[in-house]
């Protein structure tokens, strides 16, 4: 079973929340963040390179120093204020008329080490190192990770009771997504939440934030090694997460764009594709995949339907059945020579929230040669793979809406 606890969050005053709250650090590039960030935006803490002109690399030591300076400044100015006692929080997000309700809490690093916090993707060491530096220098989890858990009726009831009250925060972001936030400060409710997780929730599943989770665990291990009086209850053993019941979450497509056709012209490429796919030209109007093993491709101003031929995939294999695996095996590797999705610079990835027009635009601009849209995986596939200890290919899942950063911060002391 998982261990959780409440925490006394640093949070913006209600009247400042829309000025402080910001998208996660990894969904905006530096130029986009600089254009978006107002005076009080958390982006000055999570992407402090935007405070330099000309802009510095986000790995520059001066940028890390600026992050610490800004975090202290936000607290000193009262833009982030600590709650008077440890609490749990409820965070609701609404997109396209669908609302998901998460519990904001602290999870234990030992559960990551033991496998009770289950992952479905590999991490990159360089990205882990970057997030670890931010946690270490700030002595805080500035942004939460995004977990799911198997539905639990009692937790659902507790959350519903909290959400029946007036929210502490309620606003709509620049994408039109709704965000509401409640504080659970009742001692009996707090004790019950801790008890239900400890007794009835066997695992968390990392939905989004594999690098932040790994970084938090590494910082916890580092601080443990430095503390001869370590007990396992110190605040550095815990890190901030927002945890949603599995049934409320939806995964959307995570698509691919490629810079070249590995020396082939379009006609040759289409001919080679027909060896493993039924290829149908759909014309200039955008085409979205209709189901598992059907792909959308954009090439030279036209959309194509690609349907994998029988025998080209293994539906009995939890990894082999995934369309990211089918595309990687039959197209990216076999035809285009892209063997490592995590390091090859010829490929890039586009979250489905940006729409098919983003794929066409990157090809039409000349930056990319071909684009592929995939049918999204299901939550059931994700949890089955995580439970089995297997790993999905890189860039398989895209969750939306993204957690807004700045609604709560967890400090490690």
Structure report:
By secondary structure, the protein is an alpha+beta fold. It contains 13 helices and 21 strands. The strands form five sheets. Strands 1, 4, 5, 6, 8, 9, 10, 11 and 12 form a nine-stranded mixed sheet that branches. The protein has a six-stranded antiparallel sheet with strand order 15-17-16-19-14-18, with helices on both faces. Strands 2-3 form a two-stranded antiparallel ribbon. The longest helix has 17 residues, at 210-226. The chain is globular, with a radius of gyration of 22 Å. The mean pLDDT is 95.
Blueprint (SSEs and pairs):
Elements: E1 4-5, E2 10-11, H1 17-20, H2 30-36, H3 43-46, H4 61-76, E3 81-82, E4 88-95, E5 98-108, H5 109-114, E6 117-118, H6 125-138, E7 140-141, E8 145-149, H7 153-163, E9 169-172, E10 178-184, H8 187-200, E11 204-208, H9 210-226, E12 238-245, E13 251-252, E14 254-258, H10 266-273, E15 277-283, E16 294-299, E17 302-308, H11 323-333, E18 347-351, H12 356-364, E19 370-373, H13 379-388, E20 398-399, E21 410-411
């Amino acid at each position: 079973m998982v261990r959780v606890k409440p925490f006394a969050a640093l949070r913006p005053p209600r009247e400042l929340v829309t000025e402080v709250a910001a998208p996660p650090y990894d969904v905006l590039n530096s130029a986009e963040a600089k254009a978006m960030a107002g005076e009080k935006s958390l982006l000055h803490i999570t992407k402090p390179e935007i405070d330099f002109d000309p802009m510095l690399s986000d790995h520059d030591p001066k940028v890390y120093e600026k992050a610490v300076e800004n975090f202290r400044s936000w607290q000193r100015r009262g833009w982030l204020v600590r709650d008077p006692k440890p609490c749990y929080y409820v965070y609701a997000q609404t997109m396209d008329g669908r609302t998901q309700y998460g519990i904001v809490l602290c999870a234990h690093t030992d559960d990551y080490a033991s496998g009770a916090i289950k992952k479905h993707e590999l991490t990159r060491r360089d990205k882990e190192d970057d997030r670890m530096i931010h946690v270490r220098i700030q002595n805080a989890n500035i942004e939460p990770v995004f977990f799911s858990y198997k539905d639990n009726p009692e937790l659902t009831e507790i959350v519903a009771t909290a959400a029946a009250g007036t929210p502490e925060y309620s606003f709509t972001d620049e994408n039109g997504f709704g965000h509401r936030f409640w504080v659970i400060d009742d001692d009996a409710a707090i004790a019950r939440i801790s008890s239900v997780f400890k007794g009835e929730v066997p695992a968390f599943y990392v939905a989004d934030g594999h690098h932040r989770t790994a970084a938090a665990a590494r910082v916890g291990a580092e601080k443990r090694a430095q503390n001869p009086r370590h007990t396992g209850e110190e605040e550095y053993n815990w890190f901030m997460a927002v945890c949603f019941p599995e049934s409320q979450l939806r995964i959307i497509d995570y698509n691919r764009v490629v810079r070249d056709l590995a020396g082939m012209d379009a006609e040759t490429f289409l001919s080679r594709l027909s060896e493993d796919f039924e290829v149908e030209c759909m014309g200039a109007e955008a085409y979205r995949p209709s189901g598992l093993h059907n792909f959308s491709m954009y090439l030279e101003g036209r959309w194509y339907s690609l349907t994998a031929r029988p025998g080209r995939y293994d539906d009995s294999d939890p990894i082999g059945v995934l369309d990211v695996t089918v595309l990687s095996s039959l197209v990216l590797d076999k035809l285009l020579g892209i063997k490592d999705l995590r390091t090859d610079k010829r490929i890039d990835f586009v979250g489905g929230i940006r729409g098919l027009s983003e794929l066409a635009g990157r090809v039409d601009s000349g930056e990319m040669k071909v684009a592929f849209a995939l049918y999204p995986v299901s939550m059931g596939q994700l949890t089955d793979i995580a439970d089995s200890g297997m790993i999905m290919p890189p860039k398989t899942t895209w969750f939306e809406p993204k957690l807004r950063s700045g609604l709560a911060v967890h400090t490690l002391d």
